[in-house]
Amino acid sequence: MKYLEKKYVLRQLVRRKTAKGKGQVVEGNLADEKSIDKAVKGCDIIIHAAAILDAEDPNIFKVNVRATRRLVEAAKRYKVKQFIFISTENVVHNCPDAYSQSKKIAEEEVRKFKNHTILREPIVYGPGDKRYLGKIIKSVKHLPVIPLPAGGKFTLQPVYVEDIGRYIEQAIKLKICGTHLITGGESITYRELVRKIMKLMKKRKLLIPVPLTPIKIVAATLELVGIKPPLTTVQLNNMVLNRKYDVQEQIRIFKIKPTPLEEGLRKTIGTKSL
C-alpha cells in the first residue's frame, strides 16, 4: 500500500508485539475495549480486516460482531473520517453458516457509521495461501489423483491478494463509500481452474469427479470425532454455489482492473511453502 505509507502513519492492533509490520504497533486484542480505544484514538481511518474464519469457533460472533460494534462506537467517539470493513462475498448469497452470518450482522453494525466502506471479497489467493487455491496447487504438486467435488462444474471468481490492498487504497484515495463486491476479473469452473493450474505447473494428473454427498458424509464424520477435514462441511456447502459477476461497475468505481487470473496463479504457484 504505497499510497497509504506515503500519506499516513500506519498503526496496527496486534496480539503480540513480536508481529512484524510497518508503522506503529499497539499490542492488544479485539475482545478488550481498552485495546480498541488505544488503537483507534487519534486515527483518521479504520481498516477492519480481522475476523475468526472457522465457522465452528464458539467465539465467532463475539469477535466478528461484538468487536466490530465496539470499533464502530470508538470510531464515532474519536471522530474517525472513514471506516473500511472487509466482509465476504457469502453475504451476497446469504450463506447460512456462522461465519457468513456473523459477517452479515457485522455489516449492519458498520452501516451505523456514516462514512463506511464495506468490501465483500470472494476467495482470496496469492503467495502464502494455504486455505483454498493453495490447497489445489499443493494437491497438483503432490497427489497422483485430483478429486473434483460435484464434478468440478461450479464456478468461482477468486481475487488476487494484492488487489485487496489496491481496492482499499482506492477507497481511501477516492473517498468511496457504500457496499461493494470486489472480485477477480474472471469466472471459472473448478475443473477449468484445476486444469489451468496443472498446465502452469506442467503436471499431468488424473481428475476424478466425486459426488458431493459422500465427501460431505466423510467431512461430517471427521468433524464429529474432532478431526478437521481438508474441506469442512461448511466449505463444501459454500463452494458449490455458482459465482459469476460482471466487474465493469467495480472497475468504473475503483478505477483499477483486477489482476488477470493466470498472472496471479503464476505468482502463487511460486510460493516455496506449497
Describe the overall structure.
The protein is of the alpha/beta class and 274 residues long. Helices cover 42% and strands 17% of the residues. Strands 3-4-5-10 form a 4-stranded parallel β-sheet, sandwiched between helices. The protein has a two-stranded parallel sheet with strand order 1-2. The longest helix has 18 residues, at 60-77. The radius of gyration is 20 Å and the shape is globular. The two termini are 25 Å apart. 29% of the residues are buried. The model has no long low-confidence stretch (mean pLDDT 91).
Give me the secondary-structure topology.
Elements (H helix, E strand, L loop, with lengths): L1 H6 L3 E4 L9 E4 L5 H8 L4 E4 L11 H18 L4 E7 L9 H13 L5 E6 L2 E2 L7 H10 L2 E5 L5 E2 L2 E2 H13 L4 E4 L6 E2 H12 L4 E5 L1 H13 L8 H7 L8 H7 L6 H9 L5
Parallel strand pairs: 1-2, 3-4, 4-5, 5-10, 6-9, 7-12
Antiparallel strand pairs: 8-11
Helix pairs in contact: 2-3, 3-4, 5-7, 7-11
Radius of gyration: 20 Å
Mean pLDDT: 91
Largest sheet: 4 strands, parallel
Order of helices and strands: HEEHEHEHEEHEEEHEEHEHHHH
Q: In a nutshell, what does this entry contain?
A:
The protein is α/β, with parallel strands linked by helices and 274 residues long. It has helices at residues 2-7, 33-40, 60-77, 98-110, 133-142, 161-173, 190-201, 212-224, 233-239, 248-254, 261-269, and strands at residues 11-14, 24-27, 45-48, 82-88, 116-121, 124-125, 145-149, 155-156, 159-160, 178-181, 188-189, 206-210.
